[in-house]
Description:
- With 488 residues, the chain is mainly beta.
- 0% of the residues lie in helices and 58% in strands.
- The chain has strands at residues 2-8, 22-27, 32-39, 45-51, 59-65, 71-77, 83-91, 95-102, 111-117, 123-129, 134-143, 149-157, 163-170, 176-182, 189-196, 199-208, 213-221, 227-233, 239-247, 251-259, 265-273, 278-283, 291-300, 305-313, 323-329, 340-346, 349-356, 362-368, 383-389, 404-406, 410-414, 417-422, 429-434, 440-446, 451-457, 460-464, 471-477, 480-486.
- The chain has a five-stranded mixed sheet with strand order 27-28-29-2-30, with no helix packed on it.
Amino acid sequence: MRILILFFALFTLTNVGAQISFYKLYSGTGYDKGEGIVQLEDSSYVITGSSSSWDGSSQAFLLKVDSLGNYKWSQNYGGPESETGKRVLYNKDLGFYIAGFSSSFGAGDFDAYLVKTDLNGTKIWEKNYGKSSSWERINDAVMASDSGIVMVGETLNLNSGNSDILIIKTDKNGDTLWTKQIGGEGIDIANSIVKKGTNFLIGGEWYIEDSLVNKGFVFEIDQFGTIVRQDTISHMAGHYVVTDVSMGVSKYYAAGYRLKPNGKSGAYAASFNLDGTLFSQYTIDNAQNPNIQNKEIMFNPIANKVAIGYYTKNSGTFQDTFDLVFAYFDPNYVEWTNQFTSVLNAGIDEIGQLLPTSDGGYIAVGMNTNTGVAQYTSNGGSNIYLMKVDGNGVYPNSDGEYTLNQLVGIEINSENLIGKVYPNPFKDEFTIELENVENTKAVLFNNLGQEIASFAIQNTFTYSTAFLNSGTYFLKIGNSVTKLVKLD
Length: 488
């Protein structure tokens, strides 16, 4: 399909550092999806999500890239079934935490899942949280002021088919401090959580018995899980969903959508004063935008704007898929700004998380099933995308030939050789990195076992592959043999 990505321009900013924008894709040989991201002090990023590029089954992962989006390392976590990392949380003294869900461990079909790693992504422990009579799904998580973890999502009763809001608070060691289950007769889900001082704001949807329909909600809880205030979103008649909440300076924000009786949807966004009183809200309900859903919202303190990532369908869109749009809005009334640019892309795009960056821009992570001009079929069907928009309104070029960056680092470890080969699949070149090796030899074979080339390696060596046809090759270094795939 044709994916239209719109970016609304930022005003020129002052007093910010070096400005960077890029659009990059990461994949292995499986189905790969980005769900969450965090920026570190040096402006590098760590991404989590789900991937089948390691062992065939979907596993949670961490992928670290530098400030320009270049691959640094990746690690996978999980068991024989399925794992998804929804959010990655960071503490420079503790390491990384992955919050998500798993069907490999625990009491039910799916359970809440929490992994702690060191700063290099090495697993320290993993824990699960659930009951045998239900399955649990985590949609969002934050780190509390006491370095504990608060996870929100849903718990589904396998007997009734109804879900309740699930909130789990753990300490920094993953031990449960308290669990809250909130719900009634219908479907109740928490989609988002954000810190508000020592309290938390949670957004989602719940069933209202009086109206016999689901409404969006935003409620505030304290550090012990007690509900301080609850507000139901009901701007117009019909089913409402809050998909994300974000804190501002003097306000907080909610985004979501309204499901119309005809099966289409209208985008919803609102701003609230800190005491919870409504400041401004809107629901898109017109012929020009018959089907649109807000998914992610975030306040950018440097730009003093609100960014929203949303899906829309229009006359230029295939019926079964949405276009993905990113836009900046006024921070008070959540109204459109008028400056924008567009980049054409192909494939299905989904947004996992949208965050502000230290240079006044923002970063988005998600999934892309196509790479634009060049369709890579060896990636298993989907890529992780990382889109960086800088604080001066410079947008990445995502309508050209993309470089498919590696997700799975191929490790070399034999005859005292330690290193990696990347990317894989490759196109114009691949790089071999060896640790503490002054000089050794590499031999490249085709899939018939015929030697194609041999060359000397010293620490880091980039090999040009422009003369090779697409297909499968094998690289032999010492007794280590690595399978590589050349793309068109």
